[in-house]
Specification:
There is one protein chain. The protein is α+β, with helices and mostly antiparallel strands. About 10% of the residues lie in helices and about 20% in strands. The chain has a domain of about 170 residues. The chain contains eight helices and 15 strands. Its EC number is 3.5.1.28.
């Protein structure tokens, strides 16, 4: 994200909205305190093939109130990093950059900007004492050393209190080498061909260039042999390597987009592993050739329908959202919708449910879907997607202080859809993704950065269209329509209580002052809305 573009949008924000620009600033050294925090369930990592997720922190202390610097410092293994501070309400403007050393290659990356588009939820979840202000997390891959620099350069002349680096090791699960299942084998959504009842046949969830052939993810490297992070202070004068390796270029976008129409599998797929959350089954044989829908697909058999929409009116204000103790919505006689697209469940991507302290909160109705990007790297292999999502879950809980991961769904560049926040993919689960409009919407986030040169693949756009069409169809909402919602907070685009007329499939920036979901993904939204309207999952 360019500083100039960021500041142009910053002018529209409300006074209490957190916003940091990215930039390059050389800073003076400071004192640094190292702290290691281990997370994960007690039983995680008890066999040789698994490793629990962990969160490590490095406190950025120092006497200079305007800037902080961390010299090259060896750490425990991590793959995702961000910065955070004590008070999420701090109005801080500044710049932050990090560079990391690959655990396998030993090569240092170039400086990378951290984006700052996160806003705590506008409910009690966002007011909890453990909630911190934070940057967006950046996926850097397995790393064992880090360097950082942060400066306050806006109207605030001091960095926030309790500033620290947050580094996440996503661990490894027994399913990491067999990802790509889910309720329809968890593979990319394919563009359906003409037929009234057939649902898209899932296809391979592989790597960057061909989603039909999923590469085996390499096992994460062992803990680095360098000095691990401990509770003991780390000297600010920690020696740097004797010679700096050649800087690694910024991660390139994949050289070839995954096709949106992978070939149909030739054999009957293995039934998916049991899911911790309810998922719907396809209405047809998953080996059938995917086909284009006609104007009126027949309704699926009742036994295969997802949970029907709860019966309730549209809330007129965010405060009408139900509390976290509310029971799951009951079934109703709402519009009939087709079975869900292929969705990889939380159990399958390895969510650590011990991180989630409170039960989910439910909405009366999902009136809109907001599309996001994770603002990380585009240079990931699709076999890494589960690890990236596990890391984001850990970051949202352990760094941001939220109850669960913020997004309701994730999509990767191969078109695989993943369940996000717990509570049931066919339920109106309240997420933490679009400040001011979480009380009416579901959030879908595409893994990657689509502001700085990344382009969404055809498979990813199809998957976003299908999951959005299905989610809206559960509540009888047309994915090509518009809806008027009441802002429940000052978002930098709307004031509290202001009426906002939005597309039922909108970008994050439509409701909140941010560059998310990035220029190229945002420009693809008209196409995604049209595709959603023609989807077999849309309301008929």
């Amino acid at each position: 994200m360019s500083p100039r573009a960021t500041r142009a949008r910053r002018a529209r924000k409300a006074p209490r909205t957190i916003w940091l620009a990215a930039g390059a600033v050389v800073l003076a050294g400071t004192g640094v305190t190292a702290v290691a925090v281990t997370t994960g369930s007690e039983n995680a990592g008890t066999d040789d093939n698994t490793r629990p997720a962990k969160a490590h922190t490095l406190a950025l202390d120092g006497k200079d109130t305007k800037k902080r610097e961390l010299p090259r410092t060896e750490t425990q293994l991590f793959s995702l990093v961000g910065v955070s501070w004590e008070d999420s309400a701090d109005d801080f403007e500044g710049t932050a950059q990090i560079r990391t050393r690959g655990a396998e290659s030993g090569t240092w990356t170039e400086w990378r900007d951290l984006d700052f588009d996160i806003q705590a939820p506008e409910t009690e979840e966002g007011d909890a004492s453990k909630v911190r202000g934070a940057s967006e997390p950046l996926w850097v891959g397995p790393s064992d050393a880090i360097e950082a620099r942060v400066v306050a350069d806006g109207k605030e002349t001091a960095v926030p209190e309790a500033l620290r680096l947050d580094m996440i090791d996503p661990g490894e699960t027994k399913n990491d080498k067999g990802q790509g299942k889910g309720n329809g084998e968890g593979k990319p959504s394919a563009k359906p061909k003409k037929t009234a009842t057939a649902t898209p046949s899932p296809s391979g969830s592989g790597g960057d260039t061909d989603p039909s052939t999923a590469p085996e993810p390499s096992s994460p490297p062992s803990e680095p042999t360098g000095t691990p992070v401990t509770d003991e202070p780390v000297s600010p004068s920690a020696p740097a390597p004797s010679a700096e390796p050649t800087q690694e270029p910024s991660a390139p976008a994949p050289s070839q987009e995954p096709t949106a129409e992978p070939s149909s599998p030739s054999a009957e797929p293995t039934p998916p592993a049991p899911s911790a959350e309810p998922t719907a089954e396809p209405t047809t044989d998953p080996t059938a050739e995917p086909q284009e829908p006609t104007a009126g697909p027949s309704a699926p058999a009742p036994s295969q329908e997802p949970t029907a929409e709860p019966s309730a009116s549209v809330p007129t204000d965010e405060s009408t959202a139900k509390p976290s103790t509310q029971p799951e919505p009951a079934e109703s006689t709402g519009p009939t919708s087709p079975a869900a697209p292929a969705i990889v469940s939380r159990a399958e991507w390895g969510a650590d449910e011990s991180l989630v302290a409170d039960p989910p909160s439910y909405l009366d109705k999902v009136d809109a879907v907001f599309v996001h990007h994770t603002a990380g790297t585009n240079n990931y292999d699709c076999a890494e997607s589960p690890a990236i999502i596990r890391a984001i879950l850990t970051y949202h809980v352990k760094t941001n202080g939220w109850n669960d991961v913020g997004y309701n769904f994730f999509v990767d560049k191969c078109g695989t859809v993943f369940e996000g926040r717990a509570g049931g993919v066919d339920k109106p689960v309240r997420g933490a993704h679009t400040y001011g409009f979480n009380g009416y919407s579901s959030g879908v986030s595409l893994l990657g950065d689509y502001e700085n040169g990344g382009t969404p693949t055809a498979a990813a756009k199809q998957a976003i269209a299908d999951i959005s069409a299905w989610k809206l169809a559960l509540h009888g909402v047309d994915p090509e329509a518009k809806v008027t919602l009441t802002a429940a907070g000052d978002t930098g685009v709307y004031k509290t209580g202001e009426q906002a007329t939005l597309n039922t499939i909108s970008g994050h920036r439509d409701g909140y002052a941010t560059l998310c979901p990035g220029a190229t993904l945002y420009s693809a939204l008209p196409e995604i809305r049209r595709t959603a309207g023609a989807s077999v999952y849309a309301t008929r």
